[in-house]
Structures are given as C-alpha cells and as structure tokens.
Amino acid sequence: VIPLEEAKERVWGRVSALAPVKVPIREALGCVLAEDIIATEAIPPFDNTSVDGYAVRFADVEESPSELKVVGELRAGAWPEVAVGPGEAMRIMTGAPMPAGADAVVMVEDTEIGSDAATVRILRAVSKGESIRPVGDDVSPGDLVLVAGTVLGPAYLGLLAELGRIEVSAYRRLRVAVISTGDELVDDGRALAPGQIRESNGELICSLLSMANCEPVNYGIVADEEDVLGAALLRAASDCDAVITSGGVSMGDYDLVKVLLDRLGEMDWMQIAIRPAKPFAFGLLGPDRATPVFGLPGNPVSSMVSFELLARPALLKMMGHSAIERPKLRAIADKGVRRNRSDDRVNFVRVVATTGSDGRVHVATSGAQGSHQLAASAAANGLVRVDVSSEVEPGGEVDVILIGVPPGGL
Ligand code: AMP
Ligand code: MG
Q1: Which has the least CB within 10 A, 79, 112, 184, 261?
Q2: pLDDT digits (tens, 9 = 90+) for 180-212
Q3: How many A from CA of 75 to the centre of ligand 1?
Q4: pLDDT digits (tens, 9 = 90+) for 32-62
C-alpha cells in the first residue's frame, strides 16, 4: 500500500504533453495555447466614436450652448469622405471612424435640433478627445498579447478573433476510450436477471471526461471474453489518445481485464492508502507501449474519486496544462467532518460546498460515504481530505478540493 503522493508521481510522471497542432479557434475552448501571440494589427484599428452623437471641433463647443452646421453622417463601417471644418459638426454612430478635423464627440442626448434642420444645437461643453476611442488603445502591433501556456477561455478566443487569428498552435482535446468490464453489468434498460446490476461508470466517466475538455469515446460494456476484450483494448489504444477501464483492478478479482492489460501493456498495479479508491492501475498500452491506460476501480464513487485525484490531472498534463490539480478553498465545516472508518487510509469525504450568508464557503458531507453509494455522492462538488487519526470538529476549518462548480457558482 503506497501513499497518494507516490501514486501521483507514478502516474503523472509517466505521461507527457502531446505535440501541439493547429487548432481552429472555434474548436479551441479550454485548450492550452502552444505559441506566443504577438499582435500584427492595432485594436481598435482606427480612431472611432464610443457614442451616437455629433463629431465636433472642441474649440467650437467650449462655450455652450452653441449651434453647428451638420455636414454629413457617418455610420459604423463607413469611411469619412469630408472633414469637419470650423462651425461644423457631423452626425456619427457608435463605432464609426472619426472624420478629419473633429476632435471630440457630443452624445446625441446632449444635443437638440437647431434653428433649422441642417443645424444642431450643442447643449453641453465637451472636453478635447471626449468619447473618442483612439487607435490601438487596447492593443498595438508588436504587443505580446497572449503567452504560450494560456488556457483559452471565452474572452481569449474573442481576443484572438479580434486579432484576425482563425487558428492557433494549441494542444488538442484528447480522445479517451472508456471501457466497462464485468459479467454482472447491464446497460440496455432490460429487466435485471438475478445477480445483475446496471452499468453506470460509462456515463459517469464520459461526463467527467467531457468536463475535463476531453472527447470521450464510450466503448460500453465489453464482454469478459479473451478475444473480445483483447481486441477492444487494442483498438482503443490505437484509435484513442488514452484508455480508461473501470472494474477488475482490485485484489482477488478474476476479471479478465487484469490478465489482458498485463499481456497487452506495461502495467503498474497500485494499492493506495486512500478511501475510497484504494486499487488503481496505470500503464502504457499497445504494441509500442504508447497509449496511457488508467484502470479505475469498479465501484462508482471510487471510479469518480480516482478519476479526480489521478486520471484527470494526468490527462490535463497530456493536454499541455501546467496547473493540473483542482483548486482548493478554505471552508468551514459547520457539523465537522468525520472519517468514514478508523483505518490507516486517508479519507476523501464527499461534501457539498456553498457560500454562507457570512460570505464564507461552508461544507457539509453529501451523505453516506460508501464507495457504492453514488446517490449519496451525486450532489457533491467538493472533496475534503481527512488524514489518518484526525477529524474535523464542528465549526472547524478545512481545505475543500473543488471537483465541480455549478454554473451559478458555489
Ligand atoms: P470491481 O472493481 O470489478 O471489483 O467492481 C467493484 C464493484 O463495482 C462491484 O460491485 C461491481 O459490480 C461494481 N462495478 C464494476 N463496474 C461497474 C460499472 N461499470 N458500473 C457500475 N458498477 C460497477
Ligand atoms: Mg468486476
């Protein structure tokens, strides 16, 4: 039995980032950038107005009210043909380029129609440059806008679009095969025969993969027959960037998956001093021992926790991430956090983290902590590590590992 830290080294140390490729920005959400982005264009590309109103010469409107002759109109996308001379103004819409001669814009709300339809009365004095967005005031050509290693979130993708980039060098999403094994499993909704249970890990792990920005390929339940399972493992290893199996990695298991993984890959079978998710296997699969394979335990909660603690960070590393572990927050455990059992394993207790009326994060255990009790763990968005022979008293503080934050926040 090895400590979790050693298991992390034994798994994460054996994987490395895949080679970057050209990724269209439309497909790059959540991917890690592999090049520095240097601007070749200015943003904004020309001086333009930030309001709907009148482009004016500041000197003409220093004293208000003043009346100016309207010499034309400019909308966004048009280019000014005439200049604004002394005593003149030009109607202008947000985003339209500034005409020559004008050096300020008056909002339409601060104007009214003048003594005839061809004039405008300016009701408020403006300062020089008011409501003008100068060329390059966000980005100038030559600016280092993004550095390699940046995780591409929505605003970065918008920025790349602003810069005229339609593709970037980045680490692509991994295709990850998910294989469920076990003679007792049923996944087609039919009535259960005695001894059968319904397959759940496939859906669970595929969803965890999607949320980790991977592309899951669900192989479903693969029969415990030597040639069928062997062929599926080899096909998964050649078609996908990584393989996840669930079931058949614990001690004394007669599942064929163990025998076949040993034959088709180079495996490291681990027993980790954690609860849940004690058994875990990592290996390199296929003829050239190139495809990482993660053997998760079959109990659904164990599968989820070992995916979180060991597989997900390894997959993120393969996708070029440098921060591969989940963030932690300091939180208050109002009712304390108890160990599930007093044994010599570090407990990872599933908790629900919420923001209290005091503005702090509070955690409460999500319910029963058995590794088969998925219903009781389904609401959990955090894990609290409780070390051997320690327990958290009611009102005590803990670090909560955030394993999933709902869209509306905590
Ligand atoms: P194993 O790791 O194969 O020894 O399985 C441990 C427990 O998890 C057993 O009770 C299995 O029936 C259950 N189990 C294994 N695979 C799955 C699965 N894909 N979905 C739901 N339960 C499973
Ligand atoms: Mg099994």
Answers
A1: 79
A2: 998 899 999 999 999 999 999 999 999 999 999
A3: 65
A4: 999 999 999 999 999 999 999 999 999 999 8
Per-residue pLDDT at 63: 85
Residue nearest to atom 23 of ligand 1 (CA): 298
Helices and strands counted in the chain (H then E): 8, 26
Q: Say if strands 346-355 and 382-386 run parallel, antiparallel, or are unpaired.
A: antiparallel
Per-residue tokens: 38: 């240097």
Q: How many CA atoms lie within 13 A of 261 on its CB side?
A: 27
Tokens 């339940």 sit at which residue? 221
Residue 305 amino acid letter: V
Q: For the chain, how many residues are written?
A: 410
Which ligand 1 atom sits closest to the C-alpha of 253?
Answer: 4
Residue-averaged pLDDT of the chain = 95
**What is Dmax (Cα atoms) for the chain?**
96
Question: To test the ligand 1 pocket, which listed residue (197, 219, 251, 258) has its Cβ within 8 A of the most ligand atoms?
Answer: 197
Neighbours of 203 (CB within 10 A): 15
| Beta-ladder partners of 48 | 97, 133
281 beta partners: 269, 295
162, burial (CB in 10 Å: exposed 0-12, middle 13-18, buried 19+): middle
**Cα 369 to ligand 1 centroid, rounded to whole Å:** 16
Q: What percent of the chain has pLDDT over 90?
A: 92
Q: Which ligand is nearest to the CA of 224?
A: 2
Among the bound ligands, the one closest to the CA of 218: 1
Tell me, in angstroms, the distance from the centre of ligand 2 to residue 182's CA: 5
Residues with CB under 6 Å of ligand 1 are 180, 182, 184-185, 197, 199-201, 246-250, 253, 255, 297-300
